[in-house]
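Work Package 3 committed the consortium to producing structural models of liganded targets before the mid-term review. Because experimental data for this complex are still outstanding, the team generated a predictive model from sequence and the ligand definition alone, so that downstream docking and mutagenesis planning could proceed in parallel. The input record is reproduced below exactly as it was submitted to the modelling pipeline, together with the SMILES string for zinc ion.
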Amino acid sequence: MKRLALLGSMFFYLATSFGQAPAGVSNIYRATAEKINDLVHTKVDAKFDYSKSQMNGKVWITLKPHFYSTDSLTLDAKAMDIHQVALVKNSKNNPLKYDYDGMFLRIHLDRTYKNNEQYTVYIDYTAKPNEYKGTGSAAITDAKGLYFINPLGEEPNKPTEIWTQGETESNSVWLPTIDKPNQKQTVEVIMTVPSKYVTLSNGSLVSQKKNSDGTRTDDWKMNQPHSPYLIFMGVGDYAVVKDRYKNKEVSYYVEKEYAPVARKIFGKTPEMIALYSKLTGVDYPWVKYSQIVGRDYVSGAMENTTSTLHGESAQQDARELTDGNRWEEVIAHELFHQWFGDYVTTESWSNITLNESFATLGSQLWNEFHYGKDYGDHERYNSALGYIRSGSENKNLVRFYYNDKEDVFDAVSYNKGGAILQMLRNYVGDSAFFKSLNLYLNTYKYQAAEAQELRLAFEQVTGQDLNWFWNQWYYGSGHPKLNITYSYDNSAKQARVIVQQNTDKVFTLPVKIDVWNGNTPISYNVWVKNKIDTFNFSSPSKPNLINFDADKKLLAEKTENKTLDEYLFQYKNARNYVDRREAIEAARSKQAETTAAEILMAAMRDKFAPLRIYAISGLDVSIGQTKNAAEPILFELAQKDPDRPVKAAAIAKLGNYKFAKYNSLFRNAINDSSYTVAGNALEALSKIDSAGAAAEAKRLSAFPAKGKL
Ligand SMILES: [Zn+2]
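The resulting structure, written out as tokens with the ligand in place, is given here.
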């Protein structure tokens, strides 16, 4: 879910709330929920009372004992009024005895049922979500499951909407159920709403019926089993923009104002579906894929099966979109959940990384395969950095101990989990990696899984024992902190790399080391596995560069004794985004040195826009050589760079020069279609012409804050 925290390069959904480890972590082992009864099918009939923000519900739940015979059923049902509980027999309701404490509905069945016997209970109830006092978390700010937005129409400029948020265990605020991720069931959701509104739920809309009282009843059926937290209802005055993937509907429910740009925001979805279908070898497994935008949403976005809900930040106008679609990674993340999370589901919140690490990986794969390797590497690197900066070294990836189930939605489950999958991919190779994912998906489809089951799929495909990898990364915490020392022994003609691990835990790390003499490297595959490891490579002369972790996939903090000359060589010759980024980072920190300027000037013209920005933003123009060398390049980028964020960064930096000669450059840029370019230009102008800038600001404020679509 809960893309609160994509921690991607450009987007922070809620990233900042990540990170701080709770003062004391619970010592209660969080077991997977015991299955006494299994959900088989739920049919719910929902009528909404907008005046009270309540829902009058009737639900028919079909279940069976999981294995052992039982004469009772406990359902999660939070803050409800329960009017009737009955057993449905021959289409008749036979009242059942029950106890209800506001959280659990304990039903006494009419007899003992065996595990081959299904039974159906009927419950008539009222859901009162505003009376539920459960709390949310960093990842979601609330937990009342069912939300009435502006129900009485009293707030101007805000549409009236209803949407639900199930993860983690909040759907049981509006639907009596067994609210655990290891339950799977088919579902029918029937909603009666004012006829001016559209509805959305899981699966297919099978019928619509107009009622005489101005309402309409929509019937949605989801014929493939999925978990209770993935059930969704959405109601509102939306425009529905339709695309297709093969013969399946792909649709975008947006506020009507945004209908003209809906495809600019969501329109890559069919291509994403095609990519994920191809990579996993599992064609999109559901009947349709819809995305809907909800006001005042409590998270970033949520991957309800076939019906993803996005926060309103997804809605961007045409001017905002000139800087790029800030929501694209979220769209990809939620979509990949349709395979990892919805088709195969984590069996417990302890294993949530089985959902979230894959969704994190999914958007990285989209960037890599659709836009190119630099884009994928950029997202992966920044995501990993998000984990490293979060200070969560004490948390295991699979976490059996936590205070609150919401706590596991953090930079470890998402960012670190994604980085670990990328390391695994690099270790086993793409072909084995995607074949293993295919096996995992096919083996556990419509079921719940835990991290060991992912290991078994990888072991079956690769033929290797991978316990070492799982024990280290899934059932352990932290990451390597490495001191890497390079040297050359001229008499022995040997290059030497000494790797020292500066953590109590000693990691086992398969790593590639490239030794460069001239323009082609020789690659060596080595295993780092001791507190100190020394690797010697014969080399006729001192290498131009020794590149440790040449694939740049290792999740580690590194301290290296590389010179700027070596970094310059690395910038120009090594293969990866991270090679160049590390060189720029080294240059940013030593700008008084001539070679640093050389790296930075080259990087300002890097082929990859985010690295141009990284170089520009790091320029220290108080240093004479940097200032003089950078000025003509900044001037050129400020005028001509095709990438708007680069242009904006160049203008901002040029503003620091405070040169009156750039007055007209800044004034022209103020009229750029990009908000970022225009905003930075206004600020740059204010540094040389405050009266002029004030006049421009006044002129601009005469326009609506958000341009019309
Ligand atoms: Zn997610």
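Reviewers should note the following from the model. The first helix runs from residue 262 to 266. These observations will guide the Year 2 experiments.
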